[in-house]
Structures are given as structure tokens and as C-alpha cells.
Specification:
Largest sheet of chain A: 7 strands, parallel
CATH topology of chain A: Rossmann fold
Number of domains of chain A: 1
Structural class of chain A: alpha/beta
Strand content of chain A: 15-25%
Oligomer: homodimer
Helix content of chain A: 25-40%
Number of strands of chain A: 7
Strand order of the largest sheet of chain A: 3-2-4-1-5-6-7
Order of helices and strands of chain A: HEHEHEHEEHHEHEH
């Protein structure tokens, strides 16, 4: 019974996700769903991108259970931002995104970040209609996480290792981690960055620019 | 419709949780549910406790979506451990714990740790029948998390701030964080520790011993 209901929800979700994708494509918006544990650096990555990506129009959809802390930080930079408070739900779904899309002037947007709820599990199960799924693992979380949260690591198009500036004070085997992630997800793009110092951010920006060129 | 199903599940869960609690009490087992984001230090806290808590018999129930990495680490220390692989579920529930309890010789156990799935959201919604809920926030996750994940911070009996050894290299306002947590959860016990260096672990052990004295 429980599984049947879940399947229904996912069926509806995928239908709405397909409509979101159509709407984004029609308006030439490239949408990127950013997922991670709480505090791994989703907002920091968006803020670094706002600072470093020139000549493109950005918008951000912020997902949180409660509060507008992250949306406020982004709004301060002059970027259009819509907050979704899920009121307890542990992930965004396609319907929440469709409501947010209706609030934005899509014609004027080149790149949209969708910052998901901080959670390494449930967000991986719900397509929103995005073009790319990006996940962030921060160094302090440990190099064993692909074994323990496999769906997130296998569904991501891009895995970003953040807080690389902490490498001298932490035990994290970056080589073993990267080899394992590539093993379970051979097409993944891997970036190592520090949103605090800016190290590695330029590679991420180059990838974003190549994504925007690929647009139909 | 969706909400109705969820209420049914929670109703059944609470009934099974009450039976778990009865079974634990009858056998004189004190059970502690440990929750946090991935990599915040649940297993490390258990390993530090195994090392420092003398004269008490421990057992551990390990919850993970996949893998037995953490259970293996605990088993190596000679502590009885039961692994629950949730197969995708983002939290433990009371039924999973009841199955694990049947695998243990409860009569011989003083203290049981239940290591929940790494997730700052869903585990807070499900009672297992435990006596205490302990949550860990690690310093790198940031001091704004009580605003964004309020249920976890208000339902916890104990909040542990881990990785305090990283304080010199991170921006984390411990005073503001502690004041906010006490504001939304006045009865909370707060500990600041480093499972890496052992700093603050003795306060945690003293609290555990006082818990074991309170047993009926």
C-alpha cells in the first residue's frame, strides 16, 4: 500500500517535471539542481558563481524547510531569487518548482540554480525538470559517503568536492574517493574547489559556460 | 490523500515504538537515538564512548541506507552490533528497531546506541521507542542550522557540537548558536566536543553515567 502511493506521487512528479523542462527550454533557460548535505556549500557555490560568471543573467530558486537566510544572501547580490519553504518536506519536487517558475520572468534568464533542501538522500529521488544535477560533498563529511548514499552519487552529473582548503587538517583520501565515484558513475564531472578561498572555482565556471553554449 | 497515509504510518510507528520502549525497560536497557547529517560524527561519538565508558555493557544498532562500514568499525571493538540497511529509506522507524531488538540479548545490555541514517530532517519525525534523542552538529556545517532544520533541534534532548578542534580555521559563532538552541529548546543539554582529539568527551561520558543511574 505504502509503495503504491509513492509510485503514484513519483508518476505525477515526473509529468510535472517534463512540463517544467519544456517551459525552461522554450525560454532558453539552463537549469541546474544543486544538492548536498546541510552546510556543504550550496549557497556558497552560488555566491561564488554570481561573483565570477560574467555576461550571463542568473536566477535562483531557494529550497528550505524554513527561513529565508540563503535567499536573503543571494538577493543582496542583486540576483532574482524565489524562496520555496517546504514546511517540513525533506526535498523539492517538480510541483514546487513549477510554482516558482511562474514567479520568474523566464525570457530574461540564461542560467537558473535550484538550491535543494540540505539532504543527501531524498532530493536524489525527485526530478524537477532540471538539465543537470550537481551534488556537493564537503571535505569534513568524509571520503566514505559514496558507499553510504549511493543514489545521490550515481544520479549526479557533476560531483563537487568543496572545502578543499581544509585538506591539511582533515583525513580525506581524495584519490580513493574520486576513483570510487568514477567507478559507480563513469560519466561524472568531478571538481575540487574551495568556495572560501576561490581555489578551483574557475574550472567550475568554465564548465558552466560550456553548458550554456550547448543550449538548443 | 497523501497526508492521510502519512498519519496512518505515524500512528502504527508510535504503537510499535511504545512496544519497543516496554521491551527495553523490562530488560533494563537505556536506549539513545543518535542523529545527524552525514559525516557529522555519529560513529566517531560511539567509538569514543566505547573507549571511555567503563563497566557498562554496550550494544549498537546501526542504520544505513547501504553498506556495513560503520557496523564493521564498531564490531572490531568487540561491541555487539546489528546492522539495519534501510534500502533507500532516509530514516529508521520503530518497526526496523523492533526487528533489530529481536536479534540482541537484551538482558545483558546496559546502554544501547541506535545510530540513525545520516539526515538532519526525517529521523526527527519518527520515534523509535528510545529514551533519549541526541543530535550532533559538526562545526563545518555552520551555525545557522537551527533556523533551517528546526524540528531536529527542538526534539533533541541533547545537542552535541562536534569537530570543535576545527574552531581556529572556521567561522562558527558558538555563543550565538548555543543561545539560539537554548531559546527554541530550553531543556536541551549542550556539549561541545572533538571526537578526534577527545576534548569535551568526559562531560558526555558523565552525562551518560547519570542517565544510567536514573534507570528504573
Amino acid at each position: 500500500m505504502k509503495v503504491k502511493v509513492l509510485q503514484n506521487i513519483l508518476g505525477v512528479n515526473d509529468q510535472i517535471a517534463a512540463r517544467n523542462r519544456e517551459l525552461l527550454d522554450k525560454n532558453g533557460v539552463r537549469a541546474i539542481n544543486i544538492m548536498s548535505s546541510p552546510g556543504a556549500g550550496k549557497t556558497s557555490l552560488i555566491l561564488q558563481t554570481i561573483k565570477n560568471l560574467r555576461g550571463k543573467s542568473l536566477a535562483v530558486v531557494e529550497g528550505d524547510i524554513a527561513s529565508t537566510l540563503d535567499a536573503d544572501k543571494i538577493g543582496e547580490k542583486g540576483v532574482e531569487v524565489v524562496q520555496i519553504n517546504t514546511g517540513g518536506e525533506c526535498h523539492l519536487d517538480a510541483n514546487m518548482l513549477s510554482i516558482a517558475l511562474a514567479e520568474l520572468n523566464l525570457k530574461t534568464i540564461d542560467l537558473m540554480f535550484i538550491e535543494n533542501v540540505g539532504n543527501l538522500i531524498c532530493p536524489a529521488e525527485f526530478n524537477l525538470g532540471e538539465h543537470r544535477k550537481v551534488m556537493i560533498l564537503s571535505l569534513p563529511e568524509g571520503d566514505d559517503k559514496p558507499f553510504k548514499y549511493p543514489l545521490m552519487f550515481t544520479t549526479a552529473d557533476v560531483v563537487i568536492v568543496n572545502k578543499i582548503d581544509l585538506r591539511p587538517v582533515l583525513d580525506f583520501n581524495l584519490e580513493a574517493f574520486s576513483a570510487h565515484v568514477r567507478g559507480i558513475n563513469p560519466d561524472v564531472k568531478l571538481f575540487t574547489i574551495s568556495c572560501k578561498t576561490g581555489e578551483g572555482v574557475s574550472d567550475w565556471i568554465s564548465w558552466l559556460l560550456s553548458e550554456l553554449k550547448d543550449e538548443p
